[in-house]
Amino acid sequence: MTAQRVPYDADEKTSLVAALDRHRDAILWKLEGVDDAQLRRALVPSGTTLLGMLKHLASVEYGWFCETFGLPGDSVPYVEDDPDADWRVEADESTQDILDYYARARAAADASISTHELSDTGTSWAGATVTMRWVLVHMVEEVCRHAGHADILRELLDGMAGDHDYAVETQTSGQNA
């Protein structure tokens, strides 16, 4: 995890990236201490799992930050007749495979973010012209939304709740955010 102090007085890009990182870290925190069977266990009617959510988030990081701006990335699991393919963890995919996929996606996304200005444009999967600013805002929304889902799934699994690991943040920065 890259827990860091919230930059209360930073520029726009730094603030957006810090918000994204804080919630990316929250997602990973929700997976800590959970065994493979629990990570794959669907607790809601949609079939959402913690590990499937991480796979989905890796896919959207690659899609929005790399494909949108014409940068290389791992192939994104997409099946036209199955819009939820990126949520499904296949039997031959290990937990470590998905964690590694997410780490690569996050690193590729971070490289794209650092390379582009907020006003730089790319083309979304739907053909719209979007700025890096819009993509960052959208991805903060996306990751926050799923961090909330992860919080609910983890609470259903073992009662653990909270939006991030305050102990790590306090240890890292010397203060709670």
Task: Give a brief outline of the structure.
The protein is mainly α and 177 residues long. The chain has six helices and two strands, in the order H-H-H-H-E-E-H-H.
Question: Can you offer a commentary on this structure?
Answer:
This protein is mainly α and 177 residues long. It is 55% helix and 3% strand. It has helices spanning 12-31, 36-39, 50-66, 95-115, 132-158, 166-173; strands at 121-123, 129-131. A two-stranded antiparallel sheet has the order 1-2. Helix 1 (12-31) packs parallel to helix 5, helix 3 (50-66) packs parallel to helix 4 (95-115) and helix 3 (50-66) packs antiparallel against helix 5. The longest helix is centred in the C-terminal third of the chain and has 27 residues, at 132-158. It is globular, with a radius of gyration of 16 Å.
Describe how the helices and strands are arranged.
Elements: H1 12-31, H2 36-39, H3 50-66, H4 95-115, E1 121-123, E2 129-131, H5 132-158, H6 166-173
Secondary-structure-based class equals mainly alpha
Number of helices: 6
Helical residue percent band: 40-55%
Arrangement of strands in the largest sheet: 1-2
Largest sheet: 2 strands, antiparallel
Mean pLDDT: 89
Taken in chain order, the helices and strands follow as HHHHEEHH
Q: What's the shape?
A: globular
Number of strands: 2
Specify Rg, calculated over alpha carbons.
16 Å
| Distance separating the two termini | 16 Å
pLDDT below 50 for ≥5 consecutive residues: which ranges?
170-177
